[in-house]
Amino acid sequence: MERSATYLDHLHIFGVSYKTAGVHDRQAFSLSETEQHALLSSLRDQTDFKGFIVSTCNRTEIIGTTEHPEAILALFLDITNAGHEAFDDLGYHISGYKALVHLFRMGVGMESQIPGDFEIIMQVRKGFRMALKAGTINGYLEKIINQVIHASKRVKTETAYSTGATSVSYAAAKYIKDSNDDLSNAKITLYGLGKFGRITLDHLLGLTDASNITLVNRSDEKSEQYATETGAVFCPHAELNSAIDNADILIVATGADRPILQVGDLNKPALHTVIDMAVPSNVNPAVGNLPQLKLLNVDELSQMTREALQQRHNQAPQVEQILSQEIQELLDWHVMRTQSPKIQASIESLLETKYSSLPELVSHAYEQPMNDETEEEYLRHKMQRYFCHHIRRGKTVDMIQTELSSRVSVTP
Fold it and tell me: What's this model's pTM, rounded to 2 decimal places?
């Protein structure tokens, strides 16, 4: 077996995502955890591959370094039973610098179906941990992943790219959180446990103790099951009125074709918020006329999601700037790891000569000003960046040193 490739030119990504294939077609390329373990073992034993796998409902990607990308693709297609023809139609192969940029964009949620989806970095971490156990991670890949994780953290803390409600169920939970100072004693009744109801329940469990949530569903078996699994309170459908009587907040996620809750059903002293997530509405709009009660429908919740998505789109240029900085830092590291001794020797030689205009020459493009206490440290750092920048554009260390020496003046 040949030595594992460790250079950027050998970075490859094979994938299928929501951008290239519909749900049904993507399923053919999806990998269960068992299949991921099996594929990593095959890649480790039969190829020079070093990397990991990301497999979610929206994408499956094989990411890593190799000198034989065709072998990686063949093993991937073998384990999925998907043919080359299907991959040619639905998949993509990205390599080199473009693969690196794609990995960073994916890690911060820029390639997600919902921009700013922060869950994707959790999937990247999960794939990395699995590959680490399988023995398909080396120091080079670990450095890349750590840089991607760092970029994701910066995006989350320095921008609003991952904030705001981007689904109706999340918008409902966020409204409840934002409109109530204290949810520790608030009683919430969730009526309906279909797809939206179950997702909403997950969000509610992140807001308050499960004992504050009462579950009601037409199928008592389903509501009792979810109550048992989560610790929420089970209420038989026959006792729906009692669950409403005791509620401060009611969320309706049923699937009827008409309003099934009327003004008389919801005119309760304690009930102050009703959220109707059904289409068509399952709560009579006249309920909104009750003075003590706020009624929200799907249109209002959707407006919240549109505003959040627009906010995320507005943050994209700031995210791109962070990615540019993080990728630049990684590329500089890539150069330094191979040419550090020569670069450091050239920097020392230039500093010993005491060129007076050197600081201005190598740092004019950087906004952060120097001060006397950090001048030498600052200058060394900027000179490293200067050398790395030009080495990545084809110049040698000697060429850069000669060019700098010819352009600066010696301190008298």
Answer: 0.63
